[in-house]
Amino acid sequence: xxxxxxxxxxxxxxxxxxxxxxxxxxxxxxxxxxxxxxxxxxxxxxxxxxxxxxxxxxxxxxxxxxxxxxxxxxxxxxxxxxxxxxxxxxxxxxxxxxxxxxxxxxxxxxxxxxxxxxxxxxxxxxxxxxxxxxxxxxxxxxxxxxxxxxxxxxxxxxxxxxxxxxxxxxxxxxxxxxxxxxxxxxxxxxxxxxxxxxxxxxxxxxxxxxxxxxxxxxxxxxxxxxxxxxxxxxxxxxxxxxxxxxxxxxxxxxxxxxxxxxxxxxxxxxxxxxxxxxxxxxxxxxxxxxxxxxxxxxxxxxxxxxxxxxxxxxxxxxxxxxxxxxxxxxxxxxxxxxxxxxxxxxxxxxxxxxx
Amino acid sequence: xxxxxxxxxxxxxxxxxxxxxxxxxxxxxxxxxxxxxxxxxxxxxxxxxxxxxxxxxxxxxxxxxxxxxxxxxxxxxxxxxxxxxxxxxxxxxxxxxxxxxxxxxxxxxxxxxxxxxxxxxxxxxxxxxxxxxxxxxxxxxxxxxxxxxxxxxxxxxxxxxxxxxxxxxxxxxxxxxxxxxxxxxxxxxxxxxxxxxxxxxxxxxxxxxxxxxxxxxxxxxxxxxxxxxxxxxxxxxxxxxxxxxxxxxxxxxxxxxxxxxxxxxxxxxxxxxxxxxxxxxxxxxxxxxxxxxxxxxxxxxxxxxxxxxxxxxxxxxxxxxxxxxxxxxxxxxxxxxxxxxxxxxxxxxxxxxxxxxxxxxxxxxxxxxxxxxxxxxxxxxxxxxxxxxxxxxxxxxxxxxxxxxxxxxxxxxxxxxxxxxxxxxxxxxxxxxxxxxxxxxxxxxxxxxxxxxxxxxxxxxxxxxxxxxxxxxxxxxxxxxxxxxxxxxxxxxxxxxxxxxxxxxxxxxxxxxxxxxxxxxxxxxxxxxxxxxxxxxxxxxxxxxxxxxxxxxxxxxxxxxxxxxxxxxxxxxxxxxxxxxxxxxxxxxxxxxxxxxxxxxxxxxxxxxxxxxxxxxxxxxxxxxxxxxxxxxxxxxxxxxxxxxxxxxxxxxxxxxxxxxxxxxxxxxxxxxxxxxxxxxxxxxxxxxxxxxxxxxxxxxxxxxxxxxxxxxxxxxxxxxxxxxxxxxxxxxxxxxxxxxxxxxxxxxxxxxxxxxxxxxxxxxxxxxxxxxxxxxxxxxxxxxxxxxxxxxxxxxxxxxxxxxxxxxxxxxxxxxxxxxxxxxxxxxxxxxxxxxxxxxxxxxxxxxxxxxxxxxxxxxxxxxxxxxxxxxxxxxxxxxxxx
Lengths: 355, 884
Known about the structure:
The complex is a heterodimer.
Chain A: H1 4-7, H2 20-31, E1 38-41, H3 48-60, E2 68-75, E3 81-88, E4 92-95, H4 104-117, E5 130-134, H5 142-154, E6 159-165, H6 173-178, E7 180-183, H7 189-203, H8 209-218, H9 223-236, H10 250-264, H11 268-283, H12 288-299, H13 305-324, H14 328-354
Parallel strand pairs in A: 1-6, 1-7, 4-5, 5-6
Antiparallel strand pairs in A: 2-3, 3-4
Helix pairs in contact in A: 2-3, 4-5, 7-8, 8-9, 10-11, 10-12, 11-14, 12-13, 13-14
Chain B: H1 7-14, H2 16-30, H3 33-43, H4 52-60, H5 73-81, H6 89-92, H7 97-107, H8 128-150, H9 152-159, H10 165-168, E1 169-170, E2 178-182, E3 188-192, H11 196-208, H12 212-215, H13 217-242, H14 247-251, H15 256-259, H16 272-284, H17 286-289, H18 299-309, E4 338-342, H19 349-359, E5 363-367, H20 375-387, E6 399-403, H21 411-422, H22 425-430, E7 441-445, E8 460-464, H23 470-484, E9 487-488, H24 490-500, H25 504-516, E10 521-522, H26 524-529, H27 541-549, H28 558-566, H29 569-579, H30 590-612, H31 620-632, H32 645-666, H33 675-689, H34 701-716, E11 720-725, E12 731-736, H35 739-743, H36 755-781, H37 788-797, H38 802-811, H39 844-849, H40 856-859, H41 880-883
Parallel strand pairs in B: 4-7, 4-8, 5-6, 6-7, 9-10
Antiparallel strand pairs in B: 1-3, 2-3, 11-12
Helix pairs in contact in B: 2-9, 3-8, 3-13, 5-8, 8-9, 16-19, 20-21, 23-24, 23-25, 27-28, 27-29, 28-31, 29-30, 29-31, 30-31, 34-36
């Protein structure tokens, strides 16, 4: 709890810094002492989890903040033992089913059943239900999602599910319709900057507003990243100067380098070098879809409008195929090769016109 | 043929490049010579088949009589043979004895040319000189045809263009655009002029034409059948005469494999150096077995011998003569006590071992997989075979143990054998039981690198027995057929030999099977269609990969079979992915895009198949690979690398994942995050946060705070500086788990704090950990009693929602976990752990008595840190005075 991002996390719905009207609505929702299943989605670092924790606190009191970590064991139908870590309080349990890969269906079925079948021991003055928080629902396999839809209805009396996702496009409609979907948009850059100011004030530091804006810009509208970057700035150099270097995650920089490599030369040899870079990104756990997005963002800067559309549509297609397949490197490299081909043709044509 | 400027030579000179390629195929096509003959004979009268390349030159530089190039010959010829080229051959055949003589004068021996098939000039109005020229051309032409018959592949290459002379050259002024050409005699020929584009088109069309073989496949088939029928009849006639003589042989019931087992050294089919190596080794035993001096062959002789064979397969010896000495050890036994024959099944390893053992004067004793091979049974066999000799055997020969199929033997057995072999005489005296091995032991295996053979390999003389060469195998098969009265065409035998891939046994089995079906002869169909004798044609992944990147001119569809035989499509695709950039890739990357699209399709199908466990599309996977072959194959051989990148990447990824996992798993619940967020947002920035700028000795308040924050963060994320011994013998603080690896891509040494800072952090963190564990202990032991420790955390945690909950706690008797503690002034009673000098916790009562020092560790100038086996923890010079 020492990093700013944890230390200054709001704990009350009313103290949230942005999307205040949404917070008010959430508060009124829980005041009725019952609420439907929730599906909360939004980009990373927008404050989904913070809102959920505030909501739970509103619902159960501060007891939800006494967290403990536990590992739970499940056995798959194929007799494979799987282990999953949960974070829980007396009132809720949080789990990330995608940690067990393709066996997530078992986790969902067993876990929800376990939780739902045990009633609260002391129900006086308590809610009738417990809350199960499922992370990264959009990465669940289709099987698990289908298993979820029945479970949701069956145990609605004793447990509520709060699903967290980045995007609902990969959540099956059946689940979407069973939940109250709440979108948490990413904070704007101005909001991030003002939060940074607020935090620095709490820490007793003075933050130049230019630096705050720069950090906000670098952070991709990801508040968590912004706060971490701000603290990293502080560790590196204090007092702040407006033009100091803002440390940013290395992988972002790496994607930018890769993109500039692609633009510098289009040849099979270069493609081979780019492949090494792509491997490196995958090794470091950067999700391939983010690599796609990052590369595209950098690459289209050097394209004219027609080509932009073409490249973007190719990227979308290749990314889609990648999700169907197993080996992201093939699809990433295919996209790079395709872009190189398009770009080279474009360059040659424009050079040809020049003469 | 030598006295005439040989058209073949000229031809070869001109098309050396093409020939080189074709030459490679000749070996394989040789077998089919016979079946291609008829079609060539048919074409021999058609003058309309110059190659497209030659066409262009012949159009412009026509009419050069001096060039005796066969390809131009038809055009020179055109004036006279246009009209007749369409007429049936029979009508044109005229006896031309007078011409023959002149021809003989001119060309010397032309007996090789079949004049019956060559049409003779019939037009009387031609001058004598023209007739001669004509004849020359005829002879050249027929020679060429003969050449084509001998080397049909060349004919194939030539036969592609479909340039019709009649349509393009005319004697009269034609209606199409033309170019007049006049030869030395004043004859005018009109050659058609074509536009550039149409010429291109015709070239393209020619290129797209399927090969002659496929075009005329049907005709060829018929022709082949006719020819075979003819030959069959002929053979039948011959065999009917021969049959009675060997009738007695047929009655024999024994397997042919037994019947035709080699009975003398000369009968052996295996390679000469292999035979010699084994025999030589057996003779090395002569000294100890037969008590006679070993004849050592002269170095020169052996030297030349190994030079001749070129590829000497012995790895252990005979590479240099220096090693000759240790061929024998001090007991007079060979250096290698065991000979290990290895090779594919059916090439005659067992036969070789038995025969050579007999030749060398031993009685072979075989022990194979069908016998029991437990350690005890094996020891018995070994003892009886090597220490005793047969009493019943009249010749009283010594035994030679042959251990067949040793790669299937259990490891202890092989170890026993090795022990037995390596036991020397001196050792034998000590232990009465183990006597030195005094008889040769030959072990036979298929797989040299079987795990159970590992101990045997270093002590054994390893002899590789390769497959039998095609020629020798087919000639041997011919002999067998002859003996059995089976009429088989030589080319059929060659095909059979090629099919079994050097496996003599299966080839002979096929023959006996055919014979058993009461057929007196074996046709090409039998060999091609029957599934008998097809060996398990598994290909290794690398073979398939190499095949994918090389063009196969012989058989376009062979690649499919190869790929399917190799299986492992997933690895194969990885291999293509890693190698395709070195293959035929254009600078515009179009081939790369196309290849990748097939790879992607493969990936998608594969993933789908695996996910749904629905194998209906599995058959498509090799198709994708074959498409890649079509795109990437080239003639120049390419070094194909084994696909490693994917594995390597996977390995590294799991390594980094485990780092992330351990951070995630052990981080405090209050900071728990989704793993992805941890990996992408927190860990990349943590190194910046964990590098406080602090001077070691003099902390300012802010620096101390920074250190504290850093230590707390490390506790939260379960990071720790541990002391590790560096190779130089120094101790360094290393972050565990090493998040720098995850956070940074290239320079992973960036942002690491200097050692003194690390040490300071480590110390601070230890305090923090002690503090936290104390809190935990207190919380567990007396949860109801309000104590200062947990309050400290509460005050940190609950900065926001303190007030409300405190009120709640008063109102009702809430469950424990809901109880909030009242905030109290924390600063005075900062978390303390009271420990004495040795790290023992001072009891509370004692501690309260000595209130003067509230926090022993942090305020004391002495800080002792215990490390096992290493003691430099006392950091300051302390005088005794200070301690008192």
